[in-house]
Amino acid sequence: MNSTDGCLASSTAGLDPAVALFHSLSDATRLAIVQRLAHGEARVADLVTELGMAQSTVSAHVACLRDCALVVGRPQGRQVFYSLARPELMDLLASAETLLAATGNAVALCPNYGTDAPAEPVQGSKEIAR
């Protein structure tokens, strides 16, 4: 969000890190990856099987989460096992679920970001399933 879109009237410079954090979590596939990694580490191949998506798509989303320092990789031989970088991420998601429950999921009706709003593609990825 920025001051030109009508959502915030004041300067957003201090909000830039929060905007980046929430943007990194703003995709259903990335959230599914985070939720899966909350249960333990996984390889991209594991995520591909569990999510039913193309390897290139899953890799692009994992790279996004890794670039944002939300996910870390542990190389083992020729494989990389990914896990959450910070357990506080699950606290954030739990708080979001509490907020959604308290508002009756009203955010789903938002004309800009609700469930019927158009999806934004991930940089470097041509195929993003929603």
UniProtKB/TrEMBL annotation:
It comes from the Bacteria. CDD domains: HTH_ARSR. One of its GO terms (molecular function) is DNA binding. The keyword Nucleotidyltransferase does not apply. It holds the Pfam family HTH_5. The keyword DNA-binding applies. InterPro entries: ArsR-like_HTH, HTH_ArsR_DNA-bd_dom, Metal_resp_trans_reg, WH-like_DNA-bd_sf, WH_DNA-bd_sf. Residues 10-104 form the HTH arsR-type domain. Keywords: DNA-binding, Transcription, Transcription regulation. This is ArsR family transcriptional regulator. The lineage of its organism: Bacteria, Bacillati, Actinomycetota, Actinomycetes, Pseudonocardiales.
